[in-house]
């Protein structure tokens, strides 16, 4: 049985977020605001169905998906691009591959030491975020 990611999570570290946002083509002003935010992530997991709601004082983003089923993702409020996304299990990690305008785009979520880890990838940039349970 895969791990359960359910819970409310607060961002505690954010490494190379600037580089990741540059790779996405996000404008300077938005990057400066986004770097100061401390988003909260609420994850609801029901087997292989996921609901991930990321909130901040600047923007909210809702992602719903089922493992192994490709879906169209509208990144409105992020980089405003649409892409095809596919999330799969790789051992106890959630791995998303996003196909669209940007190369090597996707993310990986996993639990380690009681913390939620998120690695964001785009082009040649990798951002590593860590969240602590609220």
Give your account of this protein's structure:
With 134 residues, the chain is mainly beta. Helix content is 13%, strand content 56%. It contains two helices and ten strands, in the order βααβββββββββ. Strands 4-3-2-1-10-9-8-7-6-5 form a ten-stranded antiparallel sheet. Helix 1 runs antiparallel to helix 2.
User: What is the percentage of strand-forming residues?
Assistant: over 45%
Overall geometry: globular
Across the major sheet, the strand order is 4-3-2-1-10-9-8-7-6-5
Number of helices: 2
Radius of gyration: 14 Å
| Record field, number of beta strands | 10
What is the helical fraction, as a range of percent? Answer: 10-25%
In brief:
By secondary structure, the protein is mainly beta. The protein has 2 helices and 10 strands, in the order βααβββββββββ.
For the structure shown, list the relevant keywords:
13% helix; 10 strands; 10-stranded antiparallel beta sheet; mainly beta; single chain; 2 helices; 134 residues
Please specify the SSE layout and strand pairing.
Layout: E1 7-15, H1 17-24, H2 28-36, E2 40-46, E3 49-55, E4 60-66, E5 71-74, E6 82-90, E7 93-99, E8 105-112, E9 115-122, E10 125-133
Antiparallel strand pairs: 1-2, 1-10, 2-3, 3-4, 5-6, 6-7, 7-8, 8-9, 9-10
Helix pairs in contact: 1-2
